[in-house]
Each structure stands twice: as C-alpha cells, then as structure tokens.
Amino acid sequence: MNKAVGWAIRPGQRLPMEGKRLPLLHEENKSGAESSHSSDSVLVCQDIVKRFPGHIALDRVQFEVRKGEVHALLGQNGAGKSTLVKIITGVYSYDEGTITVDGKPAKIQHPKHAEELGIAIIHQDQQHVSQFDVTRNAFLGYELKGPAGLLDFKRMRQLTEEALKRIDADFTADTMVGELSVGQREQVAIVSALLKNPKILILDEPTASLSNREVRKLFEIIRTLQSQGVTIIYISHHFEEIFEISNRITVLRDGKRAGTLSTPETNKEEIIRLMIGRDLTQLYPKENLPHGEVVLEVQHLCQGRSLQGVSFSARRGEILGIAGLVGAGRTELALTVYGALKPTSGQIRVHGKPFSPRTPADAKASGIAFIPEDRRHEGLIANLTVKDNMTIANISKWSRWGLVRRTQEKQTVRDMIEKLRIATTGMNQLIQNLSGGNQQKVVIGRWLTGNSDIYIFDEPTTGVDVGSKVEIYHQMTELARKGAAVLLISSDFEELLGMSDRILVMQKGKITKQFEAGEATQQELLYWSTGGEGPKEEGTR
Amino acid sequence: MKSAIGTTESGLSAKERWGKVITKRGTLVGMILILLVLGIRSPQFFTISNLLEILKQGSILTMVALSQTIVLVAGGFDLSAGAVVHFVANLSAGMISGGQHFLVVLLLGILIGCIAGVINAALVNQLKIPPFVATLGVMFVLTGITLAYNQGKAIPLKGYPEFSYLGQGYVGPIPFIVIVVLAMLLAMHLYLKKTAAGLRMYAAGQNPQAAKLRGISPSKSLFVAFVIGGLILGLTGVFHASYNYGSSAVASGLDFLISALAAAFLGSTFSKTGELSVIGTTCAGMFIAALSNGLIINGVSNTAMSGILGSILVISVILSVLHKREIGQVTIF
Fold first, then answer.
1. What is the pLDDT of residue A161?
2. CA–CA distance, A349 with A294 (Å, rounded to integer)
3. Is residue A181, in this structure, part of any structural domain at all?
4. B325 — pLDDT class (breaks 50, 70, 90)
5. Are residues A323 and A370 in the same domain?
6. pLDDT (tens digit, 9 = 90+) per residue, B116-125?
7. Are A253 and A275 contacting, i.e. CB atoms less than 8 angstroms apart?
8. Which of A408, A456, A463, B172 ranks highest by number of CB atoms within 10 Å?
9. How much helix, strand and coil, in percent to the nearest 5, is found in chain B?
C-alpha cells in the first residue's frame, strides 16, 4: 500500500499533467485571478508589493478569497505567507497594490482597521492568561462596561457562553484557562475572535500543537463557522488537512503567487510542484567517503509523545540527513540521544555498547556533540568573547590542575577562526556583536575543537547567508572525512539532498521513509514529511 | 477574623476532605491554629477591645502591603515602599511641629509618594532596570535623604489633636485608621476586579505577551500601579507620623517592607489560583499584626519581632511558590 503511494508520486508518473500546470507564468496566473473575480469575492488583494531592505517579500501578489469558503494559503518558509497575512491584518503596510473588502477599496494601515473590516486572526500558539477564566481571556482588551464604567461580567459571560455554544465547546465560560487542554485553549482563541463578529477568520497553523482528536474537533468548528457564513483563510503545512478542509488553495513561492487552484481539481503532487518550483543549484561540497563501522545505533526509541519508536544507525564517515517538518520530533530525537531528554523506552548504542546518558555531560564524555538549532539561547553565551564561547565546552582540554593554559587555548582559537573564516575583529570580540552566520560558525567551531565521534547538527544553516553555509558544509565534510558520523537535521530539503549519504524522513515522531543518496527528490521528501500515507487513512474517516 | 474561623470549622468537620483542606487551605488553617494557641495561652487576646486594637496596629502595615500588592499585580516589585513611608513620616512630623496645617501635610505626603512611584516606574520602564534593582536604589536614596532631614534624631509630636486623630482617633468604638484601610481596600478591590484597567493590570503582570497581543501595554499598567502604590505609601507615611506621635530616628522602613511582602504573598495563597488580591493581603496583614500582638501578650520580646517577620516572609513565599507549582504555574521569581 505504502509502496504504491510512494510510486504514484514519482515525478515521472505525472508527465501528462506537467504541461498543464507546471509553467509558473505570471500571465497565466494573473488571468486566472481576474477571471475568478466576481461579486462573491469577500477579499481581493491585487498586485501587492512589499519591500524590505534588501529584498522583495511580496512581488505583485494576487490573492482572492470568496465569501464562505475555506481558502488554504500554502508555501515554504520564506515564501511570503506570513508577510501577506500581516498585510491583510494591518500589522505591515504594503508598498503597492490594492486591497478590496466586500467590493469596497480598503485601506488597511493598522490592526484596528482590519478589525473594523471584520478580519480576525488566530495566531499560532495563541497566548492566554492562564489564571483568568474563559470570559476574561476572551474579552481581554475588548472589555464590556456597564453604566458605572465597571465591567459588565454578566453580559460578557453570557456572550462568551453563546460563542462557546456556537462552536459546541465542552467547557463553560467560567472555567480557568489554566485547567484547559491545548485544544480547548485553541477554542478559547476562536471564541475570542468570534466575539468580534468576523467576516474573515484567519487561522495560522492552528493544528501545530493539537492531537488528532482535537484536530477533528477543530474541523467541525471550521465547518460550523463556514455554514454560518464566516470566510476562513487557513494556513498550514499539512496537506491532508488542507485537502480535507479547504475549497481552494493559493500557493506562494518566493514572494510571488505560484497559483490558485480549486481543491477538488488538484492533488498533492501538483501543489508540491508549485511550492518548490525550480531546480537545485550546486553549492554542496559533498564527497563520497568510505563508511566505517556503526558508531551510533538507536532502537525503538520513544520519548513522551514526540518520539514513537525510532530506529536507525549511523556509520563513521557518513552524513545522515533527517528530514521532516517542524514538530516531527527531530529535535527531540537529537536531545534524547544527547541526554537532555529522558527516553520513555528504547535503546541507544554508541560504539556497540548500550548507552543511556542522563545528562548532556554524559553524552559529551561518550563523544557526542550537539550543535543546537536555537543558537542564541541554547548555544551561545552572548556576553562572552568569541574565544570563550569556542573553548567553553572543552575547556578541560587546555587546563592543568584547574588552571587554563591560555597560550594553547589561544592558538586553537586562532586556527579555528581561520579555518571557518569567521568574520570577527579578533578572538576577544563579544559574540553578540557577530552576525548570525558567524555566531553559528563559532558554535560549530566549539565542537570541532573537541574530539567527538558523533556530531548532531540541528538546522545548522537557518538564518545563515550562502557564504557561511558553504563553510559549514565544508566543516561537515571534514568531520566525516576524519571518521565521525554526522547527523544533519534540516528542513531545507535542498541541503539534505545535497549533503546526505542517506536521508531519514520523520513525521509525527516516527521515521516514515528512508532514502539512499540520489534516490530522493524534494517533492518526495516534502510528500513523506507531510504524512505520505495520510490521505488514504483520512479518506476512509 | 470571626467569619474566617467559621469557614475552617466547617472544613474541619468534614473529615474526608481533611487532606484537601490541608493542601488547599493550609495557610488559613495554620494561621487560625496559631491564633487559637496564642488566644488560649492568654485569654485577653480574644477580647473585642484587643481585636480592635489589633486592627489598629495592623493598619499601617496593611496599607504598605496594599501598595505592594498592586505593584506585584502589575508584574513589578517595590523595595522602596518602607523607605517612602519612613521619609514621608519624618517630613510630616517635621512640618506639623513647624506649624503646618495637617491637610497641607497630607496632600504633600501623597504628592511625594506619587513622585516616588513615577521615579520607580521611569527607572523600570524607560531605563529598563529590573524592578528589584531600581527600587533598591530608590530605597537607599530615600533613606539617605531621611537621615539628612532628621539629622538622626526622632521628631516627637505632642499636642496636635487634629493631626493625631488620623492615626489615633476613633469613630465610636472603631479606630479611624481602620475605616481608612477599609475604604482603601474597597476602592482597590473595585479597581482591580471590576474595571477594565484592573483586569488588564493582572493580565500584564501574569502574561505580558498575551497582554501585548490584545493591545494592552504592560509598561503602562506598571506605571499606573507604581503611581497608585506611591500614592498609598505617601498617605501611609502621614498616618504613620500621626499614629506614632511623631517619627522615629531609626530606619523603620525595612520592617515595613518585609511585613508588607509577607502579607502580599501570604494573601495570595488564599485564592484557588494563587492570585494576588487586596482582600487576601488585608487578611494576611491583619494576621501578622495579630501574631505580633499575641506574641507580645505572651511575653515574647519586641526585639525578636524582626526575626519572626523575616521567617514569616520566607514561609509565605515558600507557601505561595508551592501553591503555584501545585496548580502548574510558573512562579513570579
């Protein structure tokens, strides 16, 4: 079954369709948008241009939403989704173009304007005051007052109850939000948006932290709202959700609209194609190195809800890519192997010996190095110097009887700055004054000064310019050549395809697919990351 | 006090809920037990006149605690509270003995309190100094100014009946200052619990990110809290000079500060969610006064009170932290 699905999406299989939809010509899309302009459009964004210093975030984007539909907005990170949403909700101003709401030209310059026009947004992971009850949270900032200027709790509670009823919630208005589940808190966010009587409700990644059951509940709510005439703009990475809930889909790519399609008339493969678009460019210094013995072996590893039986092994000289979307459990996997999270069950073997790290210090002693994703918080000590940040993890290497031998330490740092081409005024510069890419190189340099056998890179190139990226890739290859196993966790599929010997795809805490070098394509990685076999299960719902 | 005893007795009678009572109402039970023991050991403790006396003794402390509470609600912290009271008390005593009308003194005291609040808020909001450090600095500055003003000498006040009425006068059997505290409590309760500004102040203190997303400015809330708190402190300073028939030379500010913090934290353990409330603070403030009174009636030396108050502060912070952890909240520290 799975195999069949995997086969079905091989690019070669879809040749007949390519001619029809693949050309991503601006003209074609534009004409498509114009023809769909009709009196039932509730929101029309035309030729929206948004420039940021140095780049164009949105380049003549067309976006048209019809009354009462669920319109999915899709695109890779950086495609311009959030910029477009911020423009629609008045958080950003736009440089060119027009926005029409309900047939009338709208000037949305401030969040208040958007609110007055009936546009409400529910942010991803909406924040609440957990010590307040539902009523207080729902009305916070928009309180109703009685005659004496005091709060009219009676009316607020009544309206909250009504809104809760509207979405068929299973808790009351006077429940403390701290006692609610994540899914119920999402419902509180929906209720507080409903209290503003929105015509258009934007849901930004609403299912990111919801369980399956909670997602079902959310979909019921969306359908109810839809039947009550509310138009929904739905932003998500999950294809199965989009195909289940949406009527139409707009795909953005590189700040342009790649296409707007009617959901029943399209399929996942076409959408993925629109999202990715162009070919890879060569910037990967990949070498084919001989692989040695297995140094890391993970068997049936479970960790809470985030890892559900993960098994794999990594050999010396190998770069093992781990693909997946945010929340797939990749970082949790790294943290578990690194001893920062406790596994619920399963086994880790390092050099063939069972290994159960209780702390990162244990893992470090066993030769595991971890370069974290969130380098600002987890990786760097901002007000220390470049030198101190680089040597802090392996400081014992330069110490004798508790005293640091500075000359040797300095020599190592000087070598590393040169090797990684870190742009700094000197080793005594404070790390917070370095650019993001150079900061990342310092963190990587820190681990290169030690002698580890297993290196785990978690999103090493996010927010890093191309030049620094190549340096980081070079160091990865260097590590592999020295006989280390390198685990590369990345959401950049291009990078994974370019650097890895093997790629594991993770989704919802499991490894759903494994590719050898050269076997995979970006489409396939995206397909499996978003739950390859998903639609089959969902379809029989 | 009396109604509180009533509630616990009904709680105690339901034996199956004993464990729950201990975890949820542990502080209240503990407080009442302590007072009962003190009362049994010296019978004059529970006389009406002594109870009214306790309320009067606890009034100044409770006022400082109320000021501390509103600042804590908005997510701040005021270490300068005691020093503001001490400074205003000295200034009031000096001005009264210099022949000023007591209303002028009262207004000036309030004004100085407000200015202290504005300075604290500016240090925290504009200069981004953590409240703990900013108000610590203001505390030392004010203590220094006080010393320069009173030259290290006490300023006694005798023969000013109008002024002394503020802190020592009675309306029927009830001390005037207790009525002032009750009025203050009512006004603050209305403000914090029944107005949009109060609701937003709680939100800003508990989850500034959530507040910001709803268009609420946490720094504005903190400013208002510091100014209202300062206003109360100024008023308290004037009442303190009246209550004490003058001002003392030694810095009494720290004792106030410790008791006020203890009252606020102890008061927060009364509510189900560990929320700070002016009612809780007032009950806890009066309890601390009752405890001091009871201990002194039972023959504990006055000099031991500082240590006892410090212990109460530590215990109440532990209780409030445990309470918040139990319901899964991140603590304020």
1. 94
2. 10
3. no
4. low
5. yes
6. 999 999 999 9
7. yes
8. A456
9. 80, 0, 20
Quick check: A257 and A63 in contact, CB under 8 A?
A: yes
Nearest to A296 by CA among A310, A280, A312: A312
Measured CA distances, B222 to A236, A421, B215, B216, B226 (Å)? 37, 47, 15, 11, 6
Shared domain for A238 and A385, answered yes or no, is no
> How far apart, in whole angstroms, are the C-alpha atoms of residue A27 and residue A22?
13
Rounded to 5 degrees, what are φ and ψ at A56?
Answer: -100, 115
Buried b (16+ CB within 10 A) or exposed e, B136-161: bbbbeebbeebeeebeeeebebeebe
A129, B207 contact by CB (below 8 A)? yes
Please tell me whether residues A338 and A445 are part of one structural domain. Answer: yes
Domain hosting A234: range is: 39-118+198-206+230-277
Contact of A132 with chain B, judged by CB distance below 8 Å, is answered with: yes
- pLDDT, one tens digit per residue, over B10-35 is 444 455 455 555 556 667 778 888 88
Beta bridge partners of B246: B156
CA gap A200, A232 in Å, rounded: 6
Lowest mean pLDDT segment, chosen from A293-297, B54-58, B254-258: B254-258
Give domain status of residue A173, yes or no.
Answer: no
Give me the half-sphere count of Cα atoms (radius 13 Å) on the Cβ side of residue B301. Answer: 3
Q: Which of A113, A129, A181, A185 to mutate to test the interface with B (most CBs of B within 10 A)?
A: A129
pLDDT, average across residues A98-103: 91
Q: How many domains does chain A have?
A: 2
- Distances in whole angstroms, Cα of residue B277 to Cα of each of A12, A72, B64, B320: 68, 45, 14, 13
In this structure, of A361-375, B41-55, B152-166, the range with the lowest mean pLDDT score is A361-375
Sheet with A510-516, edge to edge strand ranges: A368-371, A454-458, A485-489, A319-323, A502-507, A510-516
In a domain, residue A58? The reply is yes
Q: What is the mean pLDDT of residues A499-523?
A: 87
- Cα distances from A52 to residues A83, B99, B151, in angstroms, run 10, 67, 62
Place of tokens 């395809």: A497
Is 0.90 exceeded by the ipTM? no
| Distances B85 to A13, A195, A271, B286 between C-alpha atoms, Å | 82, 45, 69, 18
Alpha-carbon gap, residue A296 to A350, rounded angstroms:
5
Token pair recorded at residue B70? 């509103």
Check A141 against B202: CB less than 8 A apart: no
Same structural domain for residues A325 and A249?
no
Give the residue from chain B lying closest to A179, CA to CA.
B327
Token pair, residue A16, equals: 């007949």
Report CA-CA distances (Å) from A82 to A29, A124, A205, A490.
Answer: 21, 11, 11, 21
Residue A407: C-alpha distances to residues A268, A411, A415 (Å): 59, 6, 12
Query: What DSSP line would sit under A167-191, residue for residue?
Result: TT-SS-TTSBGGGS-HHHHHHHHHH
CB contact (8 A) between residue B207 and residue A127? yes
> Is the minimum CB–CB distance between A182 and chain B shorter than 8 Å?
no
Does the beta-carbon distance from A123 to B213 stay under 8 Å? Answer: yes
CATH code for the domain of A75: 3.40.50.300
Do the domain assignments include residue A237?
yes
- pLDDT mean over A492-509: 88
Q: Quick one: residue B129, left, alpha or beta (phi over 0 = left, psi -120 to 50 = alpha)?
A: beta
CA–CA distances in Å: residue A417 to residues A446, A458, B231: 11, 21, 57
List, for residues B302-313, the tens digit of each pLDDT value: 778 778 878 888
